[in-house]
Amino acid sequence: MSTHAIEAVGLIKRYGDKEALAGVSFEVPRGAVCGLLGPNGAGKTTAVRILTTLTGADGGTATVAGLDVATRGGDVRARIGLAAQDATVDALLTGRENLIMIGELHHLGRRVAAARADELLEQFDLSDAGGRLAKTYSGGMRRRLDLAATLVARPEVLFLDEPTTGLDPRARNELWDVLDTLVADGTTILLTTQYLEEADRLADDIVVVDHGRVIARGDARALKRQVGGSQLFATPTDPGDLERVAAMIGDIAGAPPGIDVPSRLVQAPTDGGPLAVSRLADALGDAGIAVDDIGLRQPTLDDVFLTLTGEHIAEEQPQEVAR
Ligand SMILES: Nc1ncnc2c1ncn2[C@@H]1O[C@H](COP(=O)(O)OP(=O)(O)OP(=O)(O)O)[C@@H](O)[C@H]1O
Ligand SMILES: [Mg+2]
């Protein structure tokens, strides 16, 4: 049997003449966390829907928990959990009732289902809210209830489609902590995200998708290396100094600088390390140029995306919160 919890080979999915997936392949070892990272419309949800048997592929094959999703759908569904992009819990039931109902759907029996519900409410810090209708929950509570719902039957493989979209930073951090405990228990997780820091924070391996194709693959460190070193940057206090600062940074970094006028940010990739920063500080001091900020920063996954596609990933999207 496959040592991989998830294996996708050449997945193709068409909607009319739109190719949502144009041959996507990747695999996730058992117990690992894989981040499917890409902008709106990249094909992330489509991949998740195929892997969770909600829709069929037009080409390619996939196994989950060693089982073919096309021919062993029922067995696959018994081993996985899915937190879909839109909330799936019933708003007109309480949090506790939702979890009990799902347990009963999984044939746990009323008493076991109730015990499991209480255990999950506790784990997700929802014990106090367990008796309230889900429609009265905040977005963060709703996301936690969604995730709890996927865990009722203790799945081997967990699919999380943008688990933290729409959450504030604190709620996001709390959810990340919960995911850590699942990983520690050996659950395999495939999560999709548009948040660079989320893939970086959670995933062992990142698959970058764009327009239905895998455009890069690797851990965060390897992806960042593709951009070539750290960025030497400075933000002159006076926009009138931008050109002079750019000339200095270009000189010291030994690479052409980029200037972002609205944020007054000048930067260039460098191998120079911290020494480059002190040389820049000296040059600025000699020229009497004041800066608000100066330093060396690690490239982000957004820089990787920019290098690969010529476009930024939009970090914050306007989103509808399902009610
Ligand atoms: N049921 C459908 N009918 C027609 N087109 C679809 C359908 N589902 C997805 N698509 C199209 O397929 C492409 C990929 O969509 P998908 O939902 O997989 O993207 P995504 O990466 O999940 O995006 P987002 O970050 O916005 O959730 C998009 O162009 C989308 O419009
Ligand atoms: Mg999606």
Low-confidence stretches: 315-323
Bound molecules: adenosine-5'-triphosphate, magnesium ion
Q: Shape from CA axes?
A: elongated
**Roughly what is the average pLDDT, rounded to an integer?**
90
Give the H and E element order.
EEEHEEHEHHHEHEHEEHEHEEHEH
Q: What's the assembly state of these chains?
A: single chain
In the CATH hierarchy, the third-tier topology of the largest domain is known as Rossmann fold
CATH architecture of the largest domain: 3-Layer(aba) Sandwich
Q: What value does the Rg take, in angstroms? A: 23 Å
**Content-based structural category:** alpha/beta
- Whole-number total of structural domains: 2
Strand content: 25-35%
Whole-Å distance between the termini?
Answer: 41 Å
- CATH class categorisation of the largest domain: Alpha Beta
Task: Please state how the strands of the largest beta sheet are arranged side by side.
Answer: 6-7-8-3-9-10
Q: Based on DSSP secondary structure assignment, what is the total number of beta strands? A: 14
Instruction: Give the biggest sheet.
Output: 6 strands, mixed
Could you give a short description of this structure?
The protein is of the alpha/beta class and 323 residues long. It contains 11 helices and 14 strands.
Notable features of this structure?
323 residues; binds magnesium ion; Alpha-Beta Plaits; disordered C terminus; binds adenosine-5'-triphosphate; 4-stranded antiparallel beta sheet; Rossmann fold; alpha/beta
